[in-house]
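Hi support team,

I submitted a single chain yesterday and got back a structure, but I'm not sure I'm reading the token output correctly. Could someone confirm the output below corresponds to the sequence I sent? I've pasted both exactly as they appear in my results page.

Thanks,
R.
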Amino acid sequence: MLSIFAIPLVALSAVGASTPAARSTTPVVATWYAGWHATVGFPLSSVSWEKYNTLYYSFAETTSDVTRLSLDGSDGDLLPQFVSEAHAHGVKAHIAVGGWTGSVWFSSDLATAENRTAFVKTVADFALQYDLDGINFDWESPNNQGIGCNTISVKDTANFLVFLEELRKNPVGAKLTLSAAVGLTPFFDATGKPLTDVTGFAKVLDYVAVMNYDVWGSWFPTVGPNAPLNDTCASSANQQGSAVSSVKAWTDAGMPANQIVLGVASYGHSFNVSPSDAFASGTKTLAAYPAFNASNQPLGDLWDNVGGVDVCGVYEGSGGTFNFWGLIDNGFLTKQGKPAKGIYYRYDECSQTPYVYNETSHVMISFDNVQSFSAKGKYIKKTGLRGFAMWEAGGDYKDMLLDSIINAVGY
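Hi R., thanks for writing in. Yes, this is the structure output for that exact sequence:
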């Protein structure tokens, strides 16, 4: 496993000497809290507050009114209690702004100088109203359609930077911890290509949290890892991004390693795979990257989206998402996180992620387990990253994943 660390280390050491120092070097031990899950199995009382130093309440969504953020989809009435509980436990309370469904109006909200100034006030006032310690901007994503109906402009990334610079000059914004949940490559420039210089963002953001998940899913023709640690050891066709490649991309563009937080996933994706594709020919050994039946998406656990019309007015079917606890509840794993009886298992040494398969139901799931989280924790420690942020707090089972990564990092 040592080989996964060799590639990024050279890049990290070269970049670190020439980029601005981080605003703070305090490790980030964080998770997102999904407000809409508070009443369906994960109330605030279930959070292991003592194991984190930062929680992001998700989500405050952008609106067509630049003076307003919406909490309509995230149990807004719970936010004051969230902040109170966090502060009572010595944990920083942040709000995540945007998200997959909530980034529709980011571009237009920041499109003009007048709008940017108004949005600075909106964000600052929101932080004051709820006594927040930080803002996590989750714009998915600048100069990209995102969910499919986002307002968009070739100036999105430039406007985002100017907005952040103005927010930093605001008396409230100057005191907030500002972060951004980002993709595997830097924000898109006006030509639609990843920025090659993000030092401006490094100066105004405390850190970026690289969302190293949803790398692979039903949008590809084969099963693949949801959250690969590494892909440089995979064939070129299977190199779709990973922690290793994303850290290199961001540091090469000028983001210091100690301003990068690794996003980790407490969930996985399901696929319908026939036995003839699931196993290597003539064996009962699970094959790597098998084909699947895209027309028959297996339903995930109790929190999975069963289907409906999204914010763009487009019908979306089941997501096929299984949280770690869902893998246990649905008989794929034992309560010790091991493959259950009759379930086939494969651990991919390149991506450092496992797969489980039920031959009877034809359901295969790629996910992260305790071993995966330990590997990522060691990678964070070895490369000097700022820490980790898990999506989401409620996806774990008895803190098995959380404890694994904390122990591996050495926090």
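A quick pointer for reading it: The CA atoms of residues 39 and 224 lie 32 Å apart. Let us know if anything else looks off.

Best,
Support desk
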